[in-house]
Amino acid sequence: MMGNVLLLRFDAPLVSFGAPTVDQFGVIQPFPALSMLTGLLANALGWDHREFGRLDALQERIQYASRADVLGTRITDYQTANLAQDFMSEAWTTWGRPVVRDKRHETAERFRDYWADSVHTVALTLTGGGGPSTPEVADAIRYPARPLFLGRKCCLPGGPIIVGKATGHLLAALASVPMPKRSGAGWPVPAWWFDGAEGAPEPNEIVPVTDERDWRNHVHVGRRMMRHGMLKQPAAS
Questions:
Q1: How far apart are CA 8 and CA 170, in angstroms?
Q2: How far apart are CA 234 and CA 197, in angstroms?
Q3: CA-to-CA distance for 226 and 228, rounded, in angstroms?
């Protein structure tokens, strides 16, 4: 994919690249979900959850490639909530109104996975038009309308998210970013990219994912293909 490419770095004590939740289990994958990147950009731009059309259009425009410079350690947070308490019968929602639920005399359990002490680099571009440009998105990330987080609200960035910009193809741009100065970071590095991306390293394999969000109904839908392989350091010119 040619054009303006944003180079992002997700370096944080905790990140959550959520895959579809099954029952009470919030699992993760080793690269950012398309819905997570959409939400990150929209949050930086100051958009609202109820702007379904804008969110869907932005999600359709995002193309990206990601590498795991330091994968870190997968940890699981065990969470409980006593639903018998009076104040638990009513809760505010992301669409701006409270919902009343049946009072249940039980304790709800949830398990939420995170990557701890990991570093991920992402090359991202926006295709087509009819929405914010890549430079506008870059400005929004540098000066966000609201605080940014990497997946879940407890996953605060440990440093600046924007690390540069590039022109050219996503994988070449991704390979051009130097490794972070962190123990364990080195070439080659595991990477994931859109199926059909130019300059894909060999060998690689197909990774089916369900990470497109139906923003109106708050669920993940569809099935698309990513590729996974080892990204090598570009040869010195």
A1: 12
A2: 17
A3: 7
Of 236, 226, 185, 180, which is closest to residue 19 (Cα–Cα)? 226
In CATH terms, the fold of domain 4-72+117-231 is: Alpha-Beta Plaits (3.30.70)
- 3-class SS of residue 141: helix
DSSP 237: -
The domain spans of the chain are: 4-72+117-231
Q: Is 119 helix (H, G, I), strand (E, B) or coil?
A: strand
The encoded tokens of residue 17 equal 């690249």
> Strand 25-26 to strand 107-126: parallel, antiparallel, or no bridges (unpaired)?
parallel
Mention every residue, 6+ apart, whose C-beta is less than 8 A from residue 62: 34, 37, 38, 41, 124, 125, 126, 127
Rounded to an integer, what is the distance from CA 58 to the centroid of its chain? 14
Q: What is the pLDDT of residues 128-180, one digit of tens each?
A: 888 999 999 999 999 999 999 999 999 999 999 999 999 989 999 999 999 99
Q: Give residue for tokens 């099954």.
A: 22
Q: What is the CA radius of gyration of the chain?
A: 19
* Amino acid (one-letter) located at 215: W
The pLDDT tens digits of the residues spanning 16-74 come to 997 777 776 667 899 999 999 999 999 999 999 889 999 999 999 999 999 999 989 99
Cα–Cα dist 188/185, whole Å: 9
Buried b (16+ CB within 10 A) or exposed e, 103-135: eeeeeeeeebbbbebbbbbbbbbbeeeeebebe
Q: Measured between alpha carbons, how far is 218 from 44 in angstroms, rounded to an integer?
A: 20
Write down the pTM of the prediction.
Answer: 0.87
* Two tokens, residue 118: 């990991």
